[in-house]
Design a protein that fits this description.
The chain starts with 9 loop residues before the first helix and ends with a strand. The chain folds into two domains: about 150 residues, 2-Layer Sandwich (Beta-Lactamase), CATH 3.30.450; about 220 residues, Phosphatase 2c, domain 1, CATH 3.60.40.10. With about 475 residues, it is of the alpha+beta class. Helix 4 packs parallel to helix 5, helix 5 packs parallel to helix 6 and helix 6 packs antiparallel against helix 7. The radius of gyration is 52 Å and the shape is rod-shaped. The strands form three sheets. The chain has a six-stranded antiparallel beta sheet. It has a five-stranded antiparallel beta sheet with strand order 2-1-5-4-3, with helices on both faces.
Length: about 475
């Protein structure tokens, strides 16, 4: 199982959602607050300008001529502080829009032009020479317009400083929220989920001794308790299964032949390596009614308990029929009928029966879809005993033929299942039957048991590991 990337985890996604939501909310409140503060700073300035315009309107209406008003206006502007009221300017426009008078101390023709263009409204804000201004105009009784303008640069500087301060405060708050939410998600979500995933992964690898320490939110703790209970139940089931498999292995081992390794002048050796604790391969050594010896190798499709049950069935049939006959074809036909009766349609078996005839210097054999036995005679190339019939369990009625071949003194016959020659290396190349036959010829001077172990070591070295992917059975009979 591949671990998710950090950007694809639940904790990261929750952190993104929470922090983005926090940033949006804080940003919205910051914008609203900034606008409120701007209005709070600018509106008093506009109110002051409006009050000045009203005072000047009263003076315009009360003073008898423009000369007296001009004196009042100059005195009025002289009292204004340029530090407190930067860019302060007063202009009076007559009914035609022409300038009737102005505050001489602060005369600015470009600014007056801007004021004239905006004198139609009561309050106007504009930009002059890159500097923000506010202008308020009022009408006199005779139709003249008094416009009072002032720069808002000081107000903008204050607001800019406040924006920088608010932005810094918001940034610190965002970092704090991010740190708190990230820590909380790590402690309450990511780490508990990581522990749960590790435990489930261990269970997938059949490691049932793991337990998860409850942590995180209440829901995750509840889930942790449930998973721990599940693991404990699986551990008990696995313990029972291992106990049963051990008993099954002991039973299957008990089905293997016991006794002397020398039978009727033959040295017998065998290797049995099931892939699991029990396998679908089996071999047997049976004494027939006439005193001859029957060697049998079975290979059921599949592994584990079902395959082992079918091999036990075939062994029972062989032993039962062998007590009454020496006819290998009859025994093979009985095995086929028994398996076809109980096996599913996708289950079949291969079998090789070999009858040792030492007094005649020969062997008889029946091959039911099994790999051909290999006859190895010193000084001669190996010979495959390829004559045979159909696999067992496919059809209810199948007839088999018995074949016969000479087995001189010193020669040996090797029987095996496909697990040995189908061993593959890292490049998926097979060990192969030809390599096996060649090795059997090269080791024909070894005792049978040593020869079979040499074959196993060679296949293990070829595939680069000791464990085979399929059950392996090897059986050798050397005529002395």
């Amino acid at each position: 199982m591949v671990a998710p990337r950090w950007w694809n985890t639940l904790a990261f996604r929750l952190a993104v959602v929470i922090n983005v939501a926090a940033i949006v909310v804080l940003g919205a409140f910051g914008i609203i607050d900034s606008r409120r503060e701007a209005a709070a700073h600018i509106q008093p300035e506009i109110d002051r300008l409006r009050e000045e315009a009203r005072v000047l309107r009263v003076a315009w209406d009360q003073l008898p001529d423009e000369v007296q008003f001009q004196g009042f206006l100059d005195q009025f502007c002289h009292q204004m502080s340029s530090a407190a009221s930067p860019g302060h300017h007063i202009v009076v426009f007559d009914q035609t829009g022409e300038i009737a008078t102005r505050a001489h101390e602060h005369a600015n023709h470009n600014l007056e032009t801007m004021m004239a263009a905006s004198e139609t409204g009561d309050t106007v804000r504009f930009v002059h020479d890159g500097e923000p201004f506010a202008s308020v105009s009022v009408k006199t009784q005779d139709g003249a317009t008094i416009a009072v303008a002032q720069s808002l640069i000081l107000v903008e500087q204050i607001l800019h400083a406040q924006r920088i301060s608010r932005l810094a405060s918001t940034g610190v708050l965002v970092l704090l929220v991010f740190g708190v939410t990230t820590t909380a998600l790590l402690v309450w979500v990511r780490n508990p989920l990581r522990d749960l995933v590790a435990a489930v992964s261990a269970v997938g690898k059949r490691k049932f001794d793991v337990r998860v320490r409850p942590s995180g939110s209440r829901e995750l703790r509840y889930l942790t308790h449930g998973i721990n209970e599940m693991i404990q139940s699986l551990e008990e089931v696995e313990r029972d299964r291992e106990s049963q498999m051990k008993q099954a292995q002991e039973i299957q081992q008990a089905l293997l032949p016991r006794g002397d390794r020398e039978v009727d002048g033959y040295d017998i050796a065998a290797v049995f390596l099931p892939t699991e604790s029990i396998g679908g391969d089996l071999y047997d050594n049976v004494k027939l009614s006439d005193g001859s010896t029957l060697l049998a190798v079975f290979d059921i499709s599949g592994h584990g308990v079902p395959a082992a049950l079918f091999t036990a069935l075939l062994r029972a049939v062989v032993r039962h029929r062998a007590a009454a006959t020496t006819d290998l074809a009859f025994i093979a036909e009985a095995m086929n009928a028994a398996l076809a009766e109980v096996a599913p349609s996708d289950t079949f078996a291969t079998c090789l029966l070999v009858r040792l005839l030492p007094s005649e210097g020969a062997v008889e054999y029946v091959r039911a879809g099994h790999d051909p036995a290999i006859l190895v005679t010193p000084g001669k190339p190996p010979v495959k005993l390829e004559h045979g019939g159909m696999v067992l369990g496919v059809q209810q009625q199948v007839q088999y033929e018995v074949s016969r071949v000479a087995l001189p003194c010193g020669s040996r016959i090797i029987m095996f299942t496909d697990g040995i020659h189908e061993a593959s290396d890292a490049q998926m190349r097979l060990y192969g039957r030809e390599r096996l036959a060649k090795l059997l010829a090269e080791t024909s001077d070894l005792p049978p048991e040593e020869q079979l172990h040499a074959v196993v070591r060679s296949a293990q070295s070829f595939q680069g590991r000791d464990r085979f992917d399929d059950d392996v059975t090897l059986l050798c009979a050397r005529r002395n």
